[in-house]
Amino acid sequence: MLPAQTEENHPTMEAVQELFDRWREKRKHRDPIPPALWGAALSLTGSHSVYRVAKRLRLQYINLKARAEGRPAPGRDTKVSTFIDFGTLTATVEIAKPTGERMTITGSCNVVDLVRVFLG
Fold first, then answer.
1. Structural domain count of the chain
2. 30: containing domain
3. Which run of H or E residues covers position 94?
């Protein structure tokens, strides 16, 4: 199932859209997009903007953009860990344990150490 080709030997937007439409009609719920379809979508980014391709093919812009830039696309298997170090804050901090025990501190404190000690 090859899409129609233009003079430059690239599939047309309409042909790739038709491939995606046929795949969506037959796929099972939550099946990942096959590599061949991703390849067809990526081939369009040479002549169209990533936004336009993503919108027309109903793809997530961020996933198509990442693939177009050669980066892994964020997804269910991508683990993102974020650590925010607040350091020392001048504020009011309230912490509660599941047991109902609470602690409130107002002023400057190191949040990370405070949480470690309290929940210890």
1. 2
2. 13-68
3. strand 88-96
